[in-house]
Amino acid sequence: MIGPEDVGGVHVKYLYHCRRQLWLYARGMRPEQLSATVQLGEAVHETSYTRSSPVDLGAAKLDHLDGAAWVHEVKSSSRPSRADEAQAMHYCYRLRAVGVDAQGGILHYPKTRRTKRLPYTTQAAEQAEADIAEVLAVVSAPDSPPLLARSACRGCSYADYCWNE
Length: 165
Ligand code: SF4
Prior knowledge:
The chain is an alpha+beta fold and 165 residues long. It contains six helices and six strands. The strands form two sheets. Strands 3-4-5-6 form a four-stranded mixed beta sheet. It has a two-stranded antiparallel sheet with strand order 1-2. The longest helix is centred in the last third of the chain and has 18 residues, at 122-139. The two termini are 29 Å apart. The relative contact order is 0.20. The structure holds iron/sulfur cluster. Iron/sulfur cluster is lined by residues 18, 20-21, 147-148, 152-153, 156, 158-159, 162.
């Protein structure tokens, strides 16, 4: 089972999107590698932010850290979600832990040409720490969390697995 240092941005994103997805992901289920949605996301990333320099923090890999220590994340969706925001704050948390004075996150939505700036506050830091504890609680549960309402599963790469009956 994973420990606090193994929790990365994907775990946090799934915590906010669907706890069942997080639980399955932590057990090695990776249907997202074949997902058209993920492939679209990769294509958007490759064509939208070509000057970015990915930063690898081990469990967490962020798209780009600029010279003013803002984390940039490029998203394939049209608008910000709590999952996107939590993921960006998680990266700030990880950066601070290794001595980088991260200032916050800037989410980029090329489809709608929107950006959202999220300063890294004390409250965000506390939430990021709580998110890690919550990820560990979800993945260590013996049973998978319940399915979401079917309408919320649209576009999820795990849908064939969850709804195969
Ligand atoms: S298909 Fe629905 S219940 Fe299953 S992991 Fe995806 S969002 Fe969660």
